[in-house]
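I hope you will forgive my troubling you with a question about protein structure. The record follows directly beneath this note:
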Amino acid sequence: MPERTTRPRTRAVAAGLTALACLGVAALAGCGGSGSEGGVSGNAPAASRSTSPSPSPSPAPDWNPRPRSIAAVGDSITRGFDACSVLTDCPEASWATGTDASVRSLAVRLLGPSRATERSWNHAVSGSRMVQLPEQMALAAKERPELVTVMTGANDACRDSARLMTPVADFRTYFEASMRQLRAGAPKARVYVSSVPDLKRLWSTGRTSELGKKIWQLGICRSMLADADDLGPAAVARREAVRDRVVAYNEVLRDVCAKDRYCRYDGGAVFAYRFTGTQLSPWDWFHPSRDGQARLAEIAYRNVTAAEPPAQGR
């Protein structure tokens, strides 16, 4: 999620992370996870219904719960950043298109391991914000996928200061442009939109680790994570402002998605999910670990294959 803006900063952060990792290697054991996956009845007479099992509900007519190809767009979460090693993308651990057996990505769950390799594409870019999404959507459209997954917005809130967060109106403009870009090349592709995670909850979980807080001091998501132990009025107000902005972003994702007949929003499921310490990266205590990626894959699979879209929350 954090945006990396300059090579000097990246080298400095990498050096600091390496030193800290050496100090806390015993506490930084990676953890993989796997999870289980998880209409209308016919018009038969009442007697028949009482003795025969009811058929499974039919999915909404404009939604395809079993796509045969998937393209993913978004930011570092979808790239599996810091899930495998320090300051490195790990697309094989991506919740959307990864091949890691412990994650069991959405693509693996829907397509199977071999077809997931052949028929899924990851166009997400670590550090990207909503303004970069139209370009990613154009690339995704060229693949002619049956499903496009979208998870972006954390970097729009994760800035060096709260005043640099992307304005909500701009966030809406870029997302609308992204959907138009996709529709120009893939007019009937289904779109699954994930909510932006609750960054304040990630702060609350990660700050229980002394090592994690030291890593945050190297420059990760300053708008939320700076001065992690400061509970004074100004720090509390700053964090609440970031959370409010994330809530507003999710309302935009929900509203824009609702205007597209082939789009399904997750109903705020990722925002509401309570990541535990084992589900955060052992390298930065902020991005999802392999176990966290597996939980995201479970949420996506459940919502993509559901007969009806989830209740619409944040």
Notes: The CA atoms of residues 135 and 178 lie 8 Å apart.
